[in-house]
Specification:
Radius of gyration: 34 Å
Structural class: mainly alpha
Number of helices: 6
Helix content: over 70%
Number of strands: 0
Mean pLDDT: 74
Distance between the termini: 85 Å
Shape: globular
Low-confidence stretches: 1-57
Length: 203
């Protein structure tokens, strides 16, 4: 009789242990479910963030592209006029004067962008990288169109600062360059490049 009782207790003890282990395993399963839910939540959050970024990058209108182009045009105009003035004052030839004007156009184009980024508290190294990435293609296209128009305009290359032809050709060439460069800036901004990078530092 005692042996049977001891055996029964041993059986119940084993059953209780197995049951406890089963309960612990169930708890572990709940923990797994919690982890799965957490992972799913994180994934959904990441997906929402990605969707937001994609939407922001693709939201570009012509007015935004025109403002970015006008920004580049301002620097290019300052550089070109200053280059023409210096080249003429020093008696340089057409090619040397044009090269100086292009170099100064890039310089002032980058400088205007650099100044606006530095105001946001960005360090100089980062600001330089952003300015180069934002403006290089835009200024290059603008200078190519601008100087191309002047080079093809009869007599424009030989006109001096005192000639109406010089200022008329310069104004028209800059206007043509503005129209041609605006779609380039729109395409770049729509892909999160160009002045879209600069725009991030103003928020």
């Amino acid at each position: 009789m005692q042996h049977d009782t001891h055996h029964g207790q041993h059986g119940r003890h084993g059953h209780d242990t197995d049951h406890a282990a089963h309960v612990d395993h169930s708890t572990h399963a709940d923990h797994s479910t919690h982890a799965d839910r957490s992972d799913h939540s994180d994934h959904a959050s990441h997906a929402d963030h990605t969707g937001h970024s994609t939407h922001s990058a693709g939201k570009v209108d012509w007015a935004m592209a025109a403002r970015a182009t006008l920004h580049c045009l301002t620097g290019c105009a300052i550089g070109e006029i200053l280059g023409m003035v210096i080249g003429t004052a020093l008696g340089w030839g057409n090619m040397a004067t044009m090269v100086l004007a292009i170099v100064l156009a890039f310089f002032f184009g980058y400088t205007l962008t650099l100044r606006s980024i530095l105001k946001a508290g960005v360090d100089l190294g980062t600001a330089l990288r952003v300015a180069f990435a934002a403006d290089t293609l835009s200024i290059a296209v603008m200078e190519l169109i601008d100087n191309g128009v002047i080079a093809l305009w009869p007599g424009a290359m030989d006109a001096t600062l005192a000639d109406t032809l010089f200022w008329g050709a310069l104004a028209i060439s800059l206007a043509v360059a503005f129209v041609a460069t605006t779609p380039v800036n729109k395409w770049m901004i729509g892909r999160g490049k160009g002045h879209a990078v600069v725009h991030q530092y103003h928020h």
